[in-house]
Amino acid sequence: MSVQKFIPNLWFAGNAEEGGQFYSSVFPDTSSAVESRYPTEGLLDFQEPLAGQPLTVTVNIAGTQLTLVNAGNDFTPNPSISFMLSFDPENYRGSAEAAGKALTTTWDQLREGGSVLMALDNYPFSELYGWVQDRYGISWQLLQTQSGQSESFVTPSLMFGGAAQNKAVPAVDFYVDVFSDAQLGSRFPYPEATEVTTAGAVMFSDFKMAGQNFAAMDSAVEQPFSFTPGISIEVQCEDQAEIDRLWTALSAVPEAEQCGWLQDQYGVSWQIVPRNMGELMSRPGAFENMLKMKKLVIADF
């Protein structure tokens, strides 16, 4: 399997290890492990309660890696970035009934302690679909596909609402232009205007970056939220030149720049990091050095 270049990072309020164990129990073919820990010294004041605790927890869901970031209450995930889970009968010995049962079981577990955003039901685009926000605030769209229709079980989905309303098309065009080895997929515009959508707004679109599937849509109703660092997208870069190029292209909010994090012109948060970040962070004083940086400079670790 190819190395994953884009890794969604999910913000957890001190309970990332618990979250990883929960997802391992809910999703098929899933494992979790503590990837890194906070050092015991050199922390900022607000980080001191987390000394020695997990910093990042890796969750691998059917071949797709997510990273749970263990931190404070600074940011909260919301449905502007969700994860589509495709239950394909082909993965259940060709049985649509088995795929539906697996979807329903997963739905029931995610719904416990969470909230339903769209009821589990039959829709024009899927025989069985529902949108749920789990107990940790992470949103999941579960859908049963036609046999052989899905390329991956997990697909990150960006919903453009609030301050980013009706910007799905220009945003996706921008990302495909910025990232090498990216390509547009299908686009399905709204057949008629809604209370907030304008001409050209899409109810669904998909695209690929470095072979990974992503989806995007414009919200059909007014939303009181938009993108936050509660869910960010980590980009694993090959060298300093790639870090420099992507930082220049993406960063649009100077006050959001910190430790490799940035926000683009649409509000989406990215972490622009070297692929060998684990090795760099093992160096003496690396954590303290990183805290001084905005854009990461490999030579300064």
- Helix content estimate: 10-25%
**What characteristic shape results from the CA principal axes?**
globular
Please trace the helix and strand order, writing H or E for each element. Answer: EHEEEEHEEEEHEEEEHEEHH
| Average of pLDDT | 95
Beta-strand proportion: 35-45%
Give structural attributes.
301 residues; alpha+beta; eight-stranded mixed β-sheet; seven-stranded mixed β-sheet; 6 helices; 15 strands; globular
Provide an overview of this structure.
There is one protein chain. With 301 residues, the chain is α+β, with helices and mostly antiparallel strands. Helix content is 20%, strand content 35%. The protein contains 6 helices and 15 strands. The strands form 2 sheets. An 8-stranded mixed sheet has the order 6-7-8-5-9-12-11-10, covered by helices on one side. Strands 2-3-4-1-13-15-14 form a 7-stranded mixed sheet, with helices on one face. Strand 7 and strand 8 form a beta hairpin. The protein is globular. The mean pLDDT is 95.
Task: Provide a quick synopsis of the model.
The chain is α+β, with helices and mostly antiparallel strands.
List the helices and strands and how they pair.
Blueprint: E1 6-12, H1 16-26, E2 30-37, E3 54-61, E4 64-70, E5 81-87, H2 96-111, E6 115-123, E7 126-133, E8 139-144, E9 154-160, H3 168-178, E10 182-189, E11 202-209, E12 212-218, E13 231-237, H4 240-250, E14 261-263, E15 269-274, H5 277-281, H6 286-291
Parallel strand pairs: 1-4, 5-8, 9-12, 13-15
Antiparallel strand pairs: 1-13, 2-3, 3-4, 5-9, 6-7, 7-8, 10-11, 11-12, 14-15
